Each structure stands twice: as structure tokens, then as C-alpha cells.
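Recall that a protein's primary structure is simply its ordered list of amino acids. Everything else, from secondary elements to tertiary packing, is in principle encoded there. The following example makes that idea concrete.
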Amino acid sequence: MNLRLAEEGKEYIVKRIETDDEDLNSFLFSLGCYSGEPITVISHRKSGCVVAIKDGRYSLDSLLAEAIIVE
């Protein structure tokens, strides 16, 4: 399941990032979003969602949220 389908307030584990864009992978890695790390969806918005990764909160657009696969 991707982050767009994830339930608000529930912690998930990042399974993989589905993108071929190395810049995007590097950006997500710098936020602490990589395979095996916990991530929590704080809220869903029209344009994407707000997530908590480690000690930070980030707003992700829809395409980015759909690229992050969680379990």
C-alpha cells in the first residue's frame, strides 16, 4: 500500500520507494525516509499528505506519497 491509502495516525514501516529518480531517492533519504524506517501519516490533504519521519513533519505531494510503499 502507498502513503495515499494509509490510515491517519497509524505508524507504518517503509517497504520501498518506487521511483527511478535518483534525486528523489536522495531527497527522501536525507529526510530519513528509506526502507525499514517507521513513518506516520499525520493527515491527508487534497494535494498530498503530512507525515512524521523521525523527529520531523513533512508535507508530501500526491505523486511522492504514491511512490512510498509501506506495510
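Helices lie at 22-31, 62-67. Residues 22-31 form the longest helix (10 residues).
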